[in-house]
Amino acid sequence: MASALDPCSFSSSAKCATKHLNLGYHVDFGRRVLTAKAELTVEVLQDRFSSLTLDTRDLKISSVTANGQEAKFAMGAKHSFMGTPLEITLPFELSRGQQVIVEVGYETAPAASALQWLTPEQTAGKEHPYLFSQCQANHCRSMVPCQDSPSVKHTYYAQVSVPKELVAVMSAMRDGQEPDPQDSSRVVYRFRQPVPMPSYLIAIVVGALESRVIGPRSRVWSEKELVDKAAFEFSETETMLKTAEDLAGPYVWGQYDILVLPPSFPYGGMENPCLTFATPTLLAGDRSLSNVIAHEISHSWTGNLVTNKTWEHFWLNEGHTVYLERMIGRSMESEQFRQFKAMGGWKELQESINTFGSNNPLTNLVPSLHEVDPDDAFSSVPYEKGFALLYHLEELMGGPEVFMGFVKSYIQLFAYSSVTTEEWKSYLFTYFKDKVDILNKVDWNAWMHTPGMPPVKPQYDTTMADTCIALCQRWTKAEEKDLGGFLESDVKTLSSHQLIEFLSLLLQEEPLPLSHVERMQEAYDLNAFMNSEIRYRWLRLCVRCKLESAVPAALKMATEQGRMKFTRPLFREVYGFTKYREEALLMFQDHRAAMHPVTASLVAKDLKVDASQTTTF
Ligand code: BES
Ligand code: ZN
Fold this sequence. Notes:
Layout: E1 16-28, E2 33-44, E3 49-56, E4 60-66, E5 69-70, E6 72-75, E7 84-94, E8 99-107, E9 115-118, E10 130-133, E11 154-163, E12 167-170, E13 173-179, E14 186-197, E15 204-207, E16 210-215, E17 218-222, H1 227-233, H2 237-248, E18 257-260, E19 269-270, E20 275-278, H3 291-298, E21 306-308, H4 314-332, H5 335-356, H6 374-377, H7 381-397, H8 400-414, E22 417-419, H9 421-431, H10 436-439, H11 444-449, H12 466-477, H13 489-492, H14 496-508, H15 514-524, H16 532-544, H17 550-560, H18 564-576, H19 581-591, H20 597-606
Parallel strand pairs: 1-11, 17-18, 18-20, 21-22
Antiparallel strand pairs: 1-2, 2-8, 3-7, 4-5, 4-8, 6-7, 9-10, 10-15, 11-14, 12-15, 13-14, 16-17, 19-20
Bound molecules: ligand BES and zinc ion.
């Protein structure tokens, strides 16, 4: 049974709490396994304590000791997405306040859901293999037996042995390296994370990595082929960090590096402490997608310092982070730019709610996740309904400066802990004690516990969106005879942000006639745009409008990179074009074995591919 406190974890955080983890990894590319030792320092929270449960998933456990003494252990029944509980019985009894060191010897599975093992052909350099992890939301248990709940925070150290031509990095401070005493062909890298953090922020990459300094506390890391491009793209990092510190308080994590992963990385960015992970699809060449970095930087406060207690409160992480991300945009660009981005966010929210269905309980700001896989629940809802709520409160409470006062104070109060929506709300009422009458008029139940769009639609300034809206309307209203009137000059003066907005608006409308998208290509040459956000929307639009020649390009983009935000809708769009449904399915079968495990399983669900009919390795 899931723990009473966290529906996504078997380990009961009421009985005991992990304080520190010491991790030893031997990275075996030949067998695609990590041979490992995890030493957990566990604090006991109740008397007569003699057993504990850890989360695992597809781990092969070889030994368990408690304070060096052999301990009995048994694996429970395997759950579809929560994995297998590891029940440990201590050879002694402890009382409240005592600590015990539990050491687990184990090996990961080649199909571990947190890990993707890449062949040299799947890397930019084509010469060396590559390994990366992605633990959020509940995949850490497939690489560490642990209390895999964001309600538990601990520090960690790690020692990682890798072939000496490769480099290991983790979500921690780098702490030196030395030849592996056991094997002269290998090197051991050491790491130290002195700030307590939840298990989902443990992260590792091993590959032929290089780095460049981009600021006083920042480097970019990637294979050498991309490192200069990445250094250019992310050169605003230090300015963003300083802006974020002005808004939210001191940055406590020491280093802030960015690692650009191979194209199959499933997210745009991941806020791993000391080392943000980023998709190479951010490398637009003009820094126009750097808001993702502002977003991941913001998580250093909202998410990594103040953490959602369970995934049901995920909006506390993402809603506040989008709010901070847009505040950074406001400082570095303008208020109008923030308003423009907020409006785009509202549209993303509408799209998510359309996809899930407006009665779907997963579109609640605070959904119930009992027997729900957090990967299935993932959508823009916690991001954009969360942002919309915070923006609505900002307006009610007296504007951005006043509301940032609350956000900063919330961060300082709850730093180093994990919080629920109720705790957040109760502090909101305490902070704004003079405005409680206004807060009481908010329809909290509609915002938090009701599916569909929010009860209030914020009025955003449309200055930057007006040209996009007008151009979208010209296209939707145009008849065949008007098509000659569209010219390259329509889009020449649009920024890439505005071009993205224009295409997003069109995607919300009824599909355009085929003749229109053909003319759009002729006039604007959108096929030539390599900015991933533009290309993704353009290809979706073409497929939606049944432009057959766009199908191969859409499937190519869906498989050449694996960011789920692009890959899933592109596959779904081609699947929805009945004539090419089979094509989409074949393309997926062809690529499945080489795809990231989480992406592969979600695309399989999207395309209604019966999991039992396909082999996973
Ligand atoms: N923490 C998320 C990514 C994530 C969420 C991974 C849930 C696994 C489970 C990250 O901070 C994020 O939100 N990334 C966005 C960035 C965007 C909102 C600017 C992305 O990947 O696109
Ligand atoms: Zn985020």
